């Protein structure tokens, strides 16, 4: 089968590898579509490279995938069923024509929507899971840094949680337009210090009550501390770009009596309730995700897919990979 293999930082290509063999109790899924997540970029295109070295396991770190069951492994799934794959990071491998996965990390999908839209339930589910850790938002001002799909889904979920005002920081016009559709009240078209100043202008010098870092960089992490006001809450959602220790604005954090948390592991919750909720939102037209999957490239062009997701050229939002052409 064809699979993506990362061999070093900024090095990923497609090659032929052995197809997974059937295993009792495990599914083999014929992967139709996978998506390039920001965390995939941080693993392959930055310093967040696994300590085990290279090359990585074929198909890894792909973890957003949709396809049809080709071997049910004795489970209660049926061959041909359309499923959403939600693998734990350690066992991810959706950048491949076929992948093997625990049936507890798979959900059935109704074949009633474009598959590119159904695939968006993976990241939407992670955001639903993450937002459960936020404090009560009624009457609060929330800033979301970054308007990729993670940031856009935060806009949507936070809006539903009753935030008084959502401010989205994003330099790309197309993404800012989407943020308004997803629930943001105000958008800021600059980044860094000018964006921080803009937030303080919009909040009469108080800063935000809650800040979500949907990017995952040293700069945006510290910017979140600067943007949050006294007793502010920071949600570190984005995967770091490095495993090394980083500079942290400790004095800001201390002097403002802020609280910070990170969230990880929604795929490990028994029954996958947050992803079921995401599927329901998409299937029943409670959220319009149709503008988000903007580009699809074959797995043989996996490097181009990563490059496009990183550069965000041509108004790219979510870049998909077609694994079976």
Written overview of the protein:
Helices cover 28% and strands 26% of the residues. With 325 residues, it is an alpha/beta fold. Helix 3 packs across helix 4 (149-160) and helix 6 runs parallel beside helix 7. The longest helix has 12 residues, at 149-160. The mean pLDDT is 95.
Q: Report helical residue fraction.
A: 25-40%
For this structure, the quaternary state is single chain
SS element count, helices:
10
Radius of gyration (CA) equals 20 Å
CATH C-level label of the largest domain = Alpha Beta
Strand content: 25-35%
Overall tally of domains: 2
Give, in order, the helices and strands: EEEHEEEEHHEHEHEHEHEHEHEHE
Outline the secondary-structure elements.
Layout: E1 2-8, E2 11-16, E3 27-35, H1 38-44, E4 65-71, E5 82-85, E6 98-101, E7 106-108, H2 115-118, H3 121-131, E8 141-145, H4 149-160, E9 165-169, H5 173-182, E10 186-188, H6 192-202, E11 208-213, H7 218-227, E12 228-236, H8 250-255, E13 259-262, H9 273-283, E14 293-298, H10 302-311, E15 318-322
Parallel strand pairs: 8-9, 8-11, 9-10, 11-12, 12-13, 14-15
Antiparallel strand pairs: 1-2, 3-4, 3-6, 3-15, 4-5, 5-7
Provide a compact summary of the structure.
The chain is α/β, with parallel strands linked by helices and 325 residues long. The chain has helices at residues 38-44, 115-118, 121-131, 149-160, 173-182, 192-202, 218-227, 250-255, 273-283, 302-311, and strands spanning 2-8, 11-16, 27-35, 65-71, 82-85, 98-101, 106-108, 141-145, 165-169, 186-188, 208-213, 228-236, 259-262, 293-298, 318-322. Helix 3 (121-131) packs across helix 4 (149-160) and helix 3 (121-131) packs across helix 9 (273-283).
